[in-house]
User: Which sequence fits this backbone?
């Protein structure tokens, strides 16, 4: 039987809690994650203010769309992605995946470069032939699978298969 004496959460209370969590998220990103976010913030400003590239908010992050051959790159709060990819599924999944890296930065701060960025860069750029030859998913590497899991949870979205 439902407890009818419970009252719904107060909207002001919920908004205050969300505002506090938002503040806390950005505080940690801009202190603990300062090196990564500083690099991303500078790149974001160059891309959006000088190069006039299209950008959008995605959760707590900012995505810039670039005319490059690469897929995606996360630098803390700032995500850089290929613009106008031929596959909407790729764009959808990549936003979620890169958003997962944003949350990894929140956890790891300055360790992000060593624990996530460097292994990811090596896996992406040096093992493409190995992955193709052995039919190994790009997301098999620990940091990429972790980004998928956290991106889906944080964005409350499932990646398309």
Assistant:
């Amino acid at each position: 039987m439902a407890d009818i004496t419970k009252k719904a959460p107060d909207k002001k209370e919920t908004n205050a809690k969300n505002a506090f969590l938002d503040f806390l998220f950005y505080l940690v990103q801009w202190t603990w994650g300062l090196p990564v976010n500083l690099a991303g913030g500078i790149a974001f400003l160059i891309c959006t203010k000088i190069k006039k590239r299209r950008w959008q908010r995605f959760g707590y992050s900012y995505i810039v769309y670039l005319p490059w051959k690469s897929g995606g790159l996360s630098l803390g709060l700032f995500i850089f992605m290929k613009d106008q990819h031929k596959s909407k599924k790729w764009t959808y999944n990549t936003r979620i995946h890169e958003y997962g890296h944003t949350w990894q930065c929140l956890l790891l701060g300055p360790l992000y470069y060593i624990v996530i960025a460097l292994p990811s860069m090596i896996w992406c750029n040096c093992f493409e032939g190995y992955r193709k030859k052995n039919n190994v998913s790009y997301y098999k590497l620990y940091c990429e699978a972790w980004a998928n899991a956290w991106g889906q949870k944080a964005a409350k979205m499932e990646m398309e298969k």
The two ends are 40 Å apart (CA to CA). The first helix runs from residue 11 to 31.
